[in-house]
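Appendix C reproduces, verbatim, an entry submitted by the partner laboratory led by Prof. M.T., so that reviewers can inspect both the input and the predicted structure.
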Amino acid sequence: MTDPDFNLLATLDVLLSEGSVAAAARRLQLSPSAMSRALARLRETMGDPLLVRAGRNLVPTPRALEIREQVRLLVRDVESVLRPAGGLDPGLLVRTFSLRTSDGFVENFGPALLARVGAEAPGVRLRFVPKVTKDSGPLRDGTIDLETGVIGESTAPELRVQALFRDRFIAAVRMGHPLSRGEITPERYAAAGHICVSRRGNARGPIDEALQALGLERKVVTIVGGFATALALARASGLVASVPERHTGNLRDGLFCFPLPVTAPQITVSLIWHPRLDADPAHRWLRSCVREVCAAALGPVGDPQG
């Protein structure tokens, strides 16, 4: 059996759509004789007359009726494959994206992102995956499509990175806590019991270094793996949770928040993805959604007191 001529698929699609050799010839800008020859080739290839005369018109055979929708879809799929990469229609996109983020990111930006994606691409589903480690393996092997977070030494050098926003650390305590009244000095802040957030279980970080420069040391009572857990503990105890301001906005409802009385470095929260997805139209669309949702939700870093 010789290889089929796939160009005949487009011809067959037009013939079955128009039901007329002359109309199909006009649509494909061919002469009627050329279209008649193409129909003859299709009949020979498929072993079916496809279109037969009924009076002055042509009518499809049962075989033609059976394959008409399949042929139409095949031609559309081929056109989609050959179309330039920029021609994405999100409304027709059917895909599940896996995003690895912190719980604070989902809490603060997840609802707006889901609303944006649902409005533009109802066939898209987002799967939020908890960020247990910063290992780049899931991005490399394709288990994760997109990640948000702070770039660190463990971030693979080949990954693509785009900054989303800058953030600063603030402190949060329960209402009525002694630090919710009076001037908050470095000494008062350091003397309180603290919750340290570290996935690796470290009890020291940039805040401790800033305090050490002043000859002070904070009392770390407990170490937890995420900001949501730290804030939940602060809400139910007399401990202080020091957390990124923008990343935890909704998680801090009902807490008294104040700027740190020491200078701690700001952090940059970024989008991270593997370069194989860099030019993928659907992935580029998703990245733009995340960027624009974050930009819309964030104003200037303000005074968090109260």
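The CA atoms of residues 14 and 24 lie 6 Å apart. Additional entries are available on request from the coordinating office.
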